[in-house]
Write a structure and sequence with these properties.
It is a single chain. Helices cover 40% and strands 22% of the residues. It is an alpha/beta fold and 512 residues long. The chain contains 18 helices and 23 strands. It starts with a strand and ends in a 5-residue tail after the last strand. The chain binds flavin-adenine dinucleotide. Flavin-adenine dinucleotide binds next to helix 1, strand 2, strand 3, strand 11 and helix 10.
Length: 512
C-alpha cells in the first residue's frame, strides 16, 4: 500500500528536496516538513556543488537546479603555497549560500504543494504519518533514539567554519605556518558577495594557540571570536586585511556517522542523519540531495514502505560507502597536511588531487596540463614537461640518480637486502599503530638500514594505504622508500611517486 501521509523531520537540503520530490511523485499524498528553526535561520556559509551532482539534480528536477545555478557563482580551484599559485579550471563548480539554497528549496517544496511547519522541535515518534523521513542532521535525535545501529567516529583534526564579506576570485587552499604550528584554509566564494573560510589545524597547534581555552570559554551556540581575531592575522594575505565573520562558529572535530540500517518500522533516515563524509570532499549536501532522489523513486515505484526503504538503501548504500571511504582518506590527508608544505605547489596540487585514489593521474593531466607539466619537471629535476599521452609510463621510466643511487627507472626488482621490509598492516598510518611502525623504522635506520620496502596485500585499498605509510617514513625517517604493489595499479603507484609518497616502486610477485 502506498503511504497517504508523509512527515519529513528536518528542513535542511535533504529534507526539503525529499519533500518536493515525494509530493511531485504522489500529488495525492499529504507531505509536511517540520523544521525546528525559523525559515531564515541557518548555520554555515556557502556550499559547493560539483558538475556530477548538478547532472543528477538536473535529471531529477530541472526547475530547482536552474534556480540553484542562477543563485550560485562559478569558480576555479587554486592552491597557494610560499607565494606560488597552482590553478585548476573548473567549468561547473558552483558555490551557493546555504541560506539561498534553503530559500530555493523551501519555495520549490511549497510550489509542489508541500506544507512547511517551522519553529517547533519534534520527535519522529510523535509525528502522525504513515512514513517519517528523518532528515534531522548529523546530531539526529531520531538516529540516537532508534534501532539503526548508528556509530560516530570522531576525527583527530580540528576545524572552524567561518566566512568573510567579500568575493574571493577563486576557491583557494592555503597553508600558513605560525609559531604555534600550521593552519590551512579551504576558502571559496559563494553568492551574495561572501566567501566561506574553513580553517583546519592539528591538535598540537590548536593547544599551542590556546584554542582549547577559547573553545571552553565560548558558550554553546556562540562564536569563538578570540579564534577569529587570531586567524584574521594568520590569513591576512587571503583576506586582504578584512575581518572573518562567525555564525555559531567554534572549533569542532569532524564526526563520521555510519548506520547498520537506515530504516526501522515507518521511519527512514536520510542525509547527515544516516551518514556523513568529511567536508574536504565537499559532499554532504550532494549526498543528502541524492538520497532524496533515490527515496522518492523507491517510494513511488515500490508497493509499501518496507519494500521502498529496502530498495532505497540497496541503491544508495554502495555509493555512500564509496564516498565515505574517499572522505576517510581525504580526512587523513588533511589531518597530516603540515608534513607536506615543503613540496612545490604544483606537486602538492597533484598530491591533493590523487590523495584518495579518486582522480586518475592521466585524467588530471588532461584537466590541468600546466600544473602536471610543472609537477613532472619538479619530480624529474628539470624544466616543465608537457604531459605525454602515457604520463604514468613517463613517471615510472624516470631514472633516479643521487643519494648513492643510480637507477635507470623508478621500478626496481624485489628483494634488495639493504632495505628493511615493512609488512605491518595499518589502516591509518597516522594513528598510534603508525607511530609504532615509524619508531621501529627509526631504530632500523640508526642500525644502518638503507631504507624500507613497504609490502603487503595486493588489493587497491591496501596499496594506497602503503603509499601513505611510505610518505610518512620518507618524511620522518628518511632513506630510500620502495612501495610494493601489483602492476595493475601502476597508475596509483606513479601518482604516489609524483606526489613524493615513495622513491621507488616494485611489482608484487604473482599479482595480476
Ligand atoms: C564545515 C563544513 C563544511 C561543509 N561544506 C560543505 C560543502 O562545501 N558542500 C556540501 O555539499 N556540504 C558541505 N557540508 C555538509 C552539509 O552542511 C551537510 O552535509 C548538509 O547540510 C546535510 O543536509 P541534511 O539535510 O542531511 O541535514 P542538515 O542540513 O543538517 O539539516 C537538518 C535540519 O534538521 C533540523 N532539525 C534537527 N532536529 C530537529 C527536530 N527534532 N525537529 C525539527 N527539526 C530538526 C535542523 O534544524 C536542520 O535544519 C559541510 C559541513 C560542514 C560541517
Amino acid at each position: 500500500m502506498h503511504p497517504r501521509r508523509i512527515a519529513v523531520l528536518g528542513g535542511g537540503p535533504g529534507g526539503l528536496y525529499a519533500a518536493r520530490l515525494l509530493k511531485l511523485a504522489r500529488p495525492a499524498c499529504d507531505v509536511v516538513v517540520h523544521e525546528q528553526d525559523d525559515p531564515d535561520t541557518t548555520f554555515g556559509f556557502g556550499v559547493g556543488l560539483a558538475a556530477g551532482t548538478q547532472r543528477r539534480l538536473e535529471a531529477a528536477d530541472p526547475d530547482t537546479l536552474r534556480d540553484i545555478v542562477t543563485a550560485g557563482s562559478r569558480h576555479d580551484m587554486t592552491m597557494r603555497v610560499g607565494g606560488r599559485t597552482a590553478r585548476v579550471r573548473s567549468d561547473r563548480l558552483v558555490g551557493v549560500a546555504r541560506t539561498e539554497l534553503l530559500a530555493i528549496l523551501q519555495r520549490h517544496a511549497e510550489k509542489a504543494g508541500v506544507r512547511l511547519d517551522f519553529g517547533s522541535r519534534r520527535t519522529a515518534e510523535a509525528l502522525d504519518a504513515d512514513v517519517v523521513v528523518a532528515a534531522d542532521g548529523v546530531g539526529s535525535a531520531t538516529r540516537e533514539a532508534g534501532d539503526f545501529g548508528g556509530s560516530v567516529e570522531v576525527g583527530r583534526g580540528l576545524f572552524l567554519w567561518c566566512g568573510a564579506e567579500f568575493t574571493l576570485p577563486d576557491a583557494v587552499f592555503a597553508p600558513v605556518t605560525t609559531p604555534h604550528g600550521t593552519f590551512v584554509t579551504h576558502a571559496y566564494p559563494y553568492s551574495g558577495g561572501r566567501s566561506t573560510f574553513l580553517v583546519e589545524t592539528d591538535e598540537r597547534t590548536w593547544r599551542a594557540a590556546v584554542f582549547d581555552a577559547t573553545t571552553d570559554a565560548t558558550p554553546p551556540d556562540a562564536t569563538d571570536t578570540a579564534s577569529l581575531r587570531y586567524l584574521e592575522g594568520v590569513f591576512a594575505a587571503e583576506l586582504g586585511g578584512r575581518p572573518l565573520i562567525g555564525n555559531r562558529t567554534r572549533w569542532q572535530r569532524f564526526r563520521t556517522v555510519r548506520c547498520a540500517r537506515w530504516s526501522a518500522g515507518r521511519v527512514v533516515l536520510l542525509g547527515d542523519a544516516a551518514h556523513t563524509a568529511h567536508f574536504s570532499i565537499g559532499s554532504g549536501t550532494k549526498l543528502a540531495m541524492e538520497d532524496a532522489i533515490a527515496l522518492a523513486e523507491a517510494l513511488a515505484e515500490e508497493d509499501g514502505a518496507a519494500a521502498a526503504f529496502a530498495r532505497y538503501e540497496a541503491v544508495r548504500r554502495p555509493a555512500v560507502e564509496r564516498l565515505q571511504e574517499l572522505a576517510r582518506r581525504s580526512r587523513l590527508w588533511w589531518e597530516s597536511f603540515p608534513a607536506r608544505t615543503g613540496l612545490p605547489v604544483e606537486q602538492l596540487m597533484v598530491a591533493y588531487m590523487t590523495r584518495a585514489g579518486n582522480v586518475p593521474l592521466d585524467r588530471f593531466a588532461v584537466t590541468a596540463p600546466d600544473v602536471v607539466a610543472a609537477a613532472l619537471g619538479q619530480f624529474a629535476g628539470q624544466d616543465p614537461v608537457p604531459p605525454p599521452p602515457d604520463v604514468v609510463g613517463w613517471v615510472l621510466d624516470r631514472p633516479l640518480r643521487g643519494g648513492g643511487l643510480d637507477l635507470p627507472s623508478r621500478v626496481v626488482p624485489p628483494g634488495d637486502p639493504a632495505l628493511t621490509v615493512v609488512d605491518d598492516v595499518v589502516d591509518d598510518p597516522w594513528s598510534a599503530e603508525g607511530d609504532a611502525v615509524v619508531a621501529a623504522a627509526r631504530r632500523h635506520r640508526a642500525a644502518g638500514s638503507a631504507g624500507f620496502r613497504v609490502v603487503g596485500p595486493a588489493d587497491r585499498a591496501a596499496t594506497l594505504t602503503r603509499l601513505d605509510l611510505a610518505e610518512r617514513l620518507r618524511g620522518e625517517v628518511g632513506g630510500t622508500v620502495v612501495v610494493e604493489g601489483p602492476a595493475a595499479l601502476r597508475a596509483d603507484l606513479a601518482a604516489g611517486l609524483l606526489s613524493g609518497r615513495a622513491d621507488l616502486v616494485t611489482w608484487t610477485e604473482g599479482a595480476a
